Amino acid sequence: MTYKLSVLLAVLVVVALSAIGCGLIGDSDDDEPYRIGVMESLTGPGETYGTVANQAKQLAVEEINAAGGVNGRMIELVVEDSKCSAQDAITAYNKLTDVDEVKIILGTSCSGAMLGAAPLAEEDGTILFSGLATNPDIATAGDYIFRTSMSDAQLGVDTGNLLWADGIRNLATITESTDYAEGVRRTSVAQFEKRGGTVVAEERYASDVTDFRTQLTKLTNANPDAIHLAAQSEFAGGTIVKQARELGYDGPIYSEVVPIGATALEIAGDAANGLIAVTADLDPANNKAQEVLANFREKYDYVTLAWYLGSAYDDVYITAECLKQTEDDQDADGFRDCLYGITWSGAIGNSYSFDSNGEVVGLSNVVVEVLPTGERNEDNQGYKVLGPAPLE
């Protein structure tokens, strides 16, 4: 080797080592994972469904990463507990954006938490993408706010129509004092009254209440044709159904998704037999949905609130698709534009998309009836589907 060649090789080595030290070689952003924030209610009233949503997201990320990631890069979830509370959601949001510097956040579980964090996300230009929050006001929360969960505006129309179609004319309501539950009550009552029904009694309760007998006694004394229950937590939902039957009320009870969760049905026991709920549900004919449920059960050894599990799962795959397009987890504008233009088929439905308000379109609710305790199992989730929600 000549002297000049040796000097040239030495210079090249020095340059290469300097480049590595400066992050120009071997330390590229291409080697770093896409970092995505998660805000779910891991504690608080929404603990059961917040936990199942977080686990569904972890399952989806594991699948994506095992298959090579997104354009060769892994996905990393940075998880914070929003505790089903507006203030705690703001704290979680500030940590994710200020400390972890994420620009895309999946969540939240609860409507109050979503409405608390949404103004900050909109002002900062940060994506807030929920699979569970349903309050109607989220529809106008901003240009960076999206959800795969259907609005309670639709749930209310479907519930009001069902009540009327079932011959209910005088209704009593019991509602948890949260944004989600109040949204369900408000929209359901509005449609019920529009059809000609009358609300003869209404009661509300705080999330820390554990005994509902006083409120239920007032409701039953009004002699309603039915009771409508809107609960934020499964504990409250199951306990209210149980205590209503213990007080001797034997009329129909109508509800939404929370009182038919596995925890709520376990608490209510036989008292939940025949409970009617309007909810989204995974289609048994949707192979992807059944695959997700089977994989989730294998990994975590349980399944509850299957549709919301599937919604959280789909959100991660939609996120991965948009990251393929933007190739940048800091490009919230590009991610937003991707969501506006995407049409997706996944666990919760086929060919659904988002409208100009970030609201999911192309999905619909069904009516379900809780089965007798002896017929409830993991496969049927404790209920049977009676059919689609009535249109009128």
Summed over residues and divided by their number, the pLDDT gives a mean of 93
Largest sheet: 7 strands, mixed
* Spatial arrangement of strands, main beta sheet: 7-6-8-9-10-14-15
Question: How widely separated are the two ends?
Answer: 89 Å
**Which structural class is indicated by helix and strand composition?**
alpha/beta
Number of strands: 15
Determine the fraction of residues in helical runs and give it as a percent range: 40-55%
Any descriptors?
392 residues, alpha/beta, 12 helices, disordered N terminus
Outline the structure in words.
With 392 residues, this protein is α/β, with parallel strands linked by helices. Helix content is 44%, strand content 19%. It is built from 12 helices and 15 strands. The chain has helices at residues 3-21, 47-66, 86-99, 111-124, 152-165, 179-195, 213-221, 234-246, 262-268, 287-300, 306-326, 332-341, and strands spanning 34-40, 75-81, 104-107, 127-130, 145-147, 170-176, 198-205, 226-230, 253-255, 276-279, 343-346, 349-354, 360-361, 366-370, 383-388. The strands form 3 sheets. A 7-stranded mixed beta sheet has the order 7-6-8-9-10-14-15, sandwiched between helices. It has a 5-stranded parallel beta sheet with strand order 2-1-3-4-5, sandwiched between helices. Strand 6, helix 6 (179-195) and strand 7 form a beta-alpha-beta unit. The longest helix is centred in the C-terminal third of the chain and has 21 residues, at 306-326.
